C-alpha cells in the first residue's frame, strides 16, 4: 500500500506520466535498450536532468518519479519486456518534467499567481494523501527532498491546473456534436442503463448472534437453554414481520407501517424508502426478492443476515440504452475533455519547438534523442 500512497502525492505530473507509459506498454513497437540510466545500483547521475529556458530540472525529481513508476507498474528489470517498459517509463518521465516546466513558466509569464491559501490547501491534500505528516516527511527524506523543494513540485501541479483552465477558456461542445457522438456510441456499454427497481422495506432486526449475547447477558442463559430461547425469539420476530406483511398486502399504508415498525434507522423516517437501485446493491436474498416483484406488490418475508424484511416495489425498469438527454451530460464532458487535451497537446508541441531545451546525458531516451539533438 505504501507505494500506492506515494503515487498519490505526485498527482498531476505522475498520473500524466503513468497514462503515457500505460499507452506505451500496450503498443507493440520495440525500443532499443536504454536501461543504463539510473538502473545500476550506485550509479552516479548528473544533478540536473535538463534545462528548460535555463531552468534546471533536478535529477532527484526524475528518480522519485522513476521509483514510483517502477513500483506502480511492477516492472521486472530482469526481463527483456520489463526493461523495454522501463525505457518507455524513463522517456515519459523526462518528457513530462519538461512539459511541466514549460507550463509553469508560461503560467508565470501570464501573471497567474497562486493564492497562498490555494497552495496551502494543495500541500495539505498531499500530506493527507500520503498518510499524515510523519509519512510525508519520511517520503521526502527517502527522496532527498525538503518540504520547500516539494512545495515547488506542488506549485507546478497547481500551475498545471491553472494553465489547463486558461487554455480551455472559450472551448465548447455543440448540441450537434453531442448528438453525433451519441448516435455513434449509444450501444456502448457505458451508455446502457442497467435493470433497476425502486423499493421500500420494513426491517425487523433478527441477528442470532446479537440475540444470543443479549439473552445470555440479561437472562443468564447458556447451552441448550440459551439456544431454545434464541430460536423462540427469532420465531417471535419472524411472526411480527409476517403480521406486517399481511397488513401491507391487505392495503395498509406501507410507508406508515415502516415509520411505526421498521427497525432500519436509515430508511424508517422515509417510510422505508430505499430509492432506486441495481442488482448486487443489497444482500443476494434481498435483491432476488425485490427484482422478482411486480410494481405495487409486496414480498413474502425475506430473511437476511440483518433480520426479516417485507419489501414493496414501486417501479421496475428493464435494461435499456440511455436516451440522448440522459447521456448528453457525460458525452459533453467527454468531448470537452478531449478538446482540452488536444488544445494542451498542441500548445505544448509549439512551446517545445520554441523553447531552449538541453537534456543532459544519460537522459535523452527514445524520441528525445531526435527531438533534442
Characterization of this structure:
It is a single chain. The longest helix is centred in the last third of the chain and has 31 residues, at 324-354. This protein has 14 helices and nine strands. It has two domains: 2-173 and 335-371, Triger factor/SurA peptide-binding fold; 195-318, Chitinase A, domain 3 (Roll), CATH 3.10.50. Mean pLDDT is 88; it is low at 1-36 and 38-42. The chain has a four-stranded antiparallel sheet with strand order 5-4-7-6, with helices on both faces. Strands 2-1-9 form a three-stranded antiparallel sheet. Strands 3-8 form a two-stranded antiparallel sheet. Helix 4 (80-109) packs across helix 7 (147-168), helix 5 (116-130) packs across helix 7 and helix 9 packs across helix 10 (223-249). The protein is an alpha+beta fold and 373 residues long. It is elongated and about 85 Å long. Strand 1 and strand 2 (55-58) form a beta hairpin. The protein has helices at residues 2-9, 11-26, 59-73, 80-109, 116-130, 133-142, 147-168, 175-185, 208-219, 223-249, 254-261, 284-292, 324-354, 368-371, and strands spanning 48-52, 55-58, 192-193, 196-205, 273-278, 302-304, 307-317, 320-321, 357-359. The protein starts with a helix and ends with a helix. Helices cover 58% and strands 12% of the residues.
